[in-house]
Structure formats: structure tokens, C-alpha cells
Amino acid sequence: MKVSKAASFADILRNSRYFKLSEMDSLKGPNVFIRGKIYQDGEFLDNNVLYMYDGKILPYDRFEKSVGKSEAIRLIDLDKNYITPSLLDQHIHGGYGIDFNNAKESEIRDLLLNLKKHGHSGILATFVPDKIEKLNRQMDIVRKIMKKPDKDATRIIGINLEGPFLNPKKAGIHPPEILLKPTVKNLEKLNLDDVKMITIAPELDKDFAATEYLNKRGIITSAGHSSATAEQVRNSGVKQVTHLFNAMSPFHHRIPSIANEGLLNDRIYAEVNTAPELLSPETVNLIMKVKPKDRIILISDALRGANIDGDSFVMGGKKIYIDENGIAKDKDGILAGSIKFMGQIAKQLVDSTKMTFADFIRFASTNPSVNLDVEKGYKLEMNSYPNVTIWDKDTLKPINTFISNA
Asked: How far apart are CA 141 and CA 13, in angstroms?
């Protein structure tokens, strides 16, 4: 499907008013976007016209019939800037001094309003390992927000549990003493309503019973914080790997590991960190060269330290320091995660790797939407109500994000 071209601009110009991108506050009513680079099917189409009525993409003839005689059409000149589906971050712990493990409802709502500025329309609220009772309590807060989201705020579309079913030997920044064995009995202690994804160390999952239990419930199982062999990952039936190469046994030339399997198994998705301190540009290039493009998912892995003014923050009861290079570590130098959101890192990724901006949108929007089964909201196609972000053509920073209420 190609975006519709105008049959006659005279028809729409007669009753149109030009709007600047900065003036756009919603997609309500009739809107015509011109002179933009429109993302479709993994590429950008130049100088096509996008017709939207109340946030719905329409072909020209249906758009024309939808517009009332007294309605003023907003004509938006994109000036060669990009218009794309907005970002969907399936692995984000927080930001602006807030994390899902400890925040109050009002604090999480504030975070979601701020995330919209960075091009995010949807996220999975991601939890680090914690006590079961506390996880259940905090997940209830998230569920309350999901049921009654704030207008024009980034949506939480589900919950991601990065543990506590991790291997203590690959715990990374997480306290080993708080981790649990991945058993069905332990899983049953959690309220799994609205949980979309759980990270498990497959080598600790006896007979892969926990993974099978979650797969049957439709919860995405992800191998991570793990010393598993390639064979264990393959036999476990997990659907993806958590932040490939980080907190796992490294790629091995004789004894295939979880890293080997995450890179080489075309069936499973590979989460790829956007922060260069977590994954070098050369490694990102390797992943793109080997992994099918429809199996790469970019994540921020952003912590509560993202977009804070200070030089330290607390995560899981541990103090994390932000060094002079903007890298978050504990006192022993163990990397904690990212302090930038995906919308802040696009330009750096495009400049430092072989990733194009079209690739970035595919990996950070389209692919996770397919993985999470919400792809209808992340396609610019006819009769859809997409979440939309407009990006500056030079800085690759979001100019505006519109979140669908459909």
C-alpha cells in the first residue's frame, strides 16, 4: 500500500489553513501532511501526501467525503522532516528520577507524560528483581494506570519482569540474594495479569517447566542474565533473549552459548541495547549483518537516572553513580543500564553504526509491536489509527508525538 497522492491540491487548498509543526497539538479533525518523508514497510517515501481525519489515515476520496463543508482543513508542511509510527520500548525501568519498582501512581503518570516528548507512545513497565510481595503491590499500581491512562500520555501496554528468575552468577547490578529459582511454584506467587514478558535463566529451569507454563499463558519468555548453553536456550522454547551480549555468557567459538544462540537463531528475537556503553557500534553492526532484520528489537533499558540533574541515584537499594562520560555504574564499576531514552539516541546510532533511520524505526517501533501483538497501532496504512511521531530531519529528535485513542 502506497500513501495516496492528491488528485487536485486546489480542492484541499480552497478551505485550508497552513499549520506549523509546533502548532500541532492533536490529530483531531481533517489534517493533510505534505512534503514529508513518510515511513512505510521499512523505507521512507518522499513527497507523498498523508490524509488523516481524527487520527485515521484515509485515501484521498474518502478523506474528501469526510470533511464537512464548514470544516477548516489543517495543511501541515513537513518540510522534508520524517513522519513515522512512534516508539515502543519493551524494556524500560524508568527515568526522571522515577522507577516502576518504587514509584507512586502520581510519579509514574508524570514519567509517562515526559516520555511522550521523546517519541514514545507505548512501553512495557519493566521491573528489576524484588521481593514477590513488593512486585505484586507495584504491579497493581501499573494496572490501575493501564485501566485509566492520562490523555496524550505514553501508554503502558503491559508489564515486563526482568527477574527475579535470574542466574546469580550473571546477576549484573541486581542483588543475587533476592533472586529466585524459575519454578512454577514461584511463578504462581506472582499476579501475572497484564504481564507480557518475563526474563528467565533457562539453565535453572528444570525440564523447562517454568518456560512452558509461561508460554501456555501467552507470556513472552526471554532468556537473560544467564550462563545457558545454546542448546539449553534452543530446547527451552524461549521467544527472545534479553539485551543480547549483556549479562550472559559470551559468544564462544567452540562451546556455543546463549549469546551464540541469540545471535544465530532466526526464530527468536534479540533485544539490542541502544546505549553505546552497553553495546559497541561494531557489535550492533555484527548483529545487523547476521540477524534477520525482523528479529531485532531496540530497547533503552533506561533507569530512573535517565534525564536527571544529579550524578547518582538509587536502584534496588544500591547507589549508582553517573560518571563524567554519562555512564551509570555501581561503586565496583559494574554497568547498571542506560540513562537515555531511545528517542534521544537515534542520531548517535545512525551516525556511529550502519543502521539507517528507517532501520531504527523498524527495530524500535514495528518489530516490538509485532512481538507484543499491537502492530495495528504502529503502521501508517489506510484505515489505521496509528501512534505517530514527527522527527527533525537533521537532529533526528522528535518534534511531536500523537498518541492514538482508538
From this structure: 48
Coil/strand/helix, residue 102: coil
Place of cell 565496583: 332
Task: Summarize the chain as % helix, strand, coil (round to 5).
Answer: 30, 30, 40
6 pLDDT higher than 50 = no
C-beta separation of 352 from 276 below 8 A: yes
Residue with cell 508542511: 77
325 phi, psi to nearest 5 deg:
-95, 5
- Report how many helices (DSSP H) and strands (DSSP E) the chain contains, helices first: 12, 22
Neighbours of 253 (CB within 10 A): 6
- Dist. CA 11–CA 33, nearest whole Å: 15
Residue type at position 30: P
**Torsion angles phi and psi, residue 85, rounded to 5:** -60, 145
User: CA–CA separation, 392 vs 390, rounded Å?
Assistant: 7
Dist. CA 111–CA 100, nearest whole Å: 10
Contact 105, 122 (CB under 8 A): no
Percent of the chain at pLDDT > 70 equals: 96
User: Distance (Å, rounded) from C-alpha 363 to C-alpha 160?
Assistant: 18
Give CA–CA dist 112/152, Å, rounded: 9
Q: Which residues, other chains included, contact 120 with Cβ-Cβ below 8 Å and sequence gap of 6+?
A: 86, 87, 88, 89, 154, 341, 342, 343, 401
Element spanning 30, H or E: strand 30-40
Q: How far apart are CA 375 and CA 157, in angstroms?
A: 12
> pLDDT (tens digit, 9 = 90+) per residue, 286-300?
999 999 999 999 999
Note whether 7 and 65 are within 8 A (CB): no
pLDDT digits (tens, 9 = 90+) for 113-132: 999 999 999 999 999 999 99
